[in-house]
């Protein structure tokens, strides 16, 4: 009985501990991207729950696969900490072909708007065009 209680207690303790705490750089990038997406929210877009964080180096891309639905409008927004001088957000179809998007770029913050004509898997690329290796955060809005 004591062994069963010890196992249950350890499962409860482990379940309550986050797998990985966010770093200060991730929190900073998340705050910056949420400031940017406020403009889209004012335009009727809903912010999707969740976000992606990662590290990007100069002239490299971070790719995130997303499922999009025809008839919806999307804005993908990313922000990086102050080590980034200029980032970019681009979209690709399932074959890797670049897509034409509306774009916004403010140095360390960037967005790409897109309305798919067919539902399916797409890829969002976050690139560091100028600056030092940095942490970024990506979110998206839809309507």
Structural class by SSE content: alpha+beta
Low-confidence stretches: 1-18
Please tally the β strands and state the result. Answer: 9
Distance between the termini: 54 Å
- Briefly note the CATH topology name: Jelly Rolls
Question: What is the number of independent domains?
Answer: 1
Taking all Cα atoms into account, the compactness measure Rg is 18 Å
Q: Given this structure, which CATH class is correct?
A: Mainly Beta
What is the approximate shape? globular
Report the helical percentage: 10-25%
Number of helices: 2
Strand content: 35-45%
Instruction: Please tell me the CATH architecture by its name.
Output: Sandwich
N-to-C SSE string, H for helix and E for strand: HHEEEEEEEEE
Mean pLDDT over the residues: 85
What does the main sheet amount to? 6 strands, antiparallel
Descriptive overview:
With 143 residues, the chain is an alpha+beta fold. It is built from two helices and nine strands, in the order ααβββββββββ. The chain has a single domain, classed as Jelly Rolls (Sandwich). Helix content is 23%, strand content 43%. The chain is globular and about 35 Å long. Residues 1-18 have low confidence and may be disordered.
Task: Give the topology, please.
Layout: H1 2-15, H2 24-42, E1 46-47, E2 52-56, E3 61-68, E4 74-80, E5 84-92, E6 102-105, E7 109-114, E8 120-131, E9 134-142
Antiparallel strand pairs: 1-9, 2-9, 3-8, 4-7, 4-9, 5-8, 6-7
